[in-house]
Amino acid sequence: LLREKFREFARETGSVGQERVDRVNLTIEDLIDAGHSEAATIAEWKDGLNESWADLLELIDTRMQLLAASHDLHKYFYDGAELLALIAARRQELPQDLGEDAGTVEAFHRMHSAFERDLQLLEAQVQQFRETAARLQTAYAGEKAAGIQEQEQEVARALQELLEACSGRRARLVDTADKHRFFSMARDLLSWMESTVRQIETQEKPR
Description:
Blueprint: H1 2-33, H2 39-93, H3 102-137, H4 142-202
Helix pairs in contact: 1-2, 2-3, 2-4, 3-4
Keywords: Actin-binding, Coiled coil, Repeat
Coiled coil: 112-139
Pfam families: Spectrin (PF00435)
């Protein structure tokens, strides 16, 4: 809000001020061209006025830059807090259940693949956040620079922990699927052996 108000102030000041300065310059030039007795003094006044106007424009520009930098810094910390909350929410969405049978495990595996695809957008947001951090760190020093770096590291660490949790769940799902596949094969083999034993037992015994 402060930035917008000052931008409007700068726009109005620049427009009105330039018009007034141009009008004064034109008047001074007319006086000098007319051979005014104080032409030299008037010319000095003209130079002084134009220098003062240039100084004022520079001051306005500097103020605009400071407000822009302050806005960027506040937005950076706000975005960092938003990302941390988003990462925490995604972490909560990661289920612990691995499934009681092969069909359930397969369904969980498909859900997890979709979950990992969704995380790609979050990874891109974090990457953009880290690029902003690098840019801001060149503009600030001391405590502010340290705060920027600390926020960046916290976000990067939270994302890394989430990605590691995802990898861990994928590995557990694969292990669980392998276990159910083995049990299924073992049951089939036992069933076949039991069937074979029954066939042998029902055959006529040799005399």
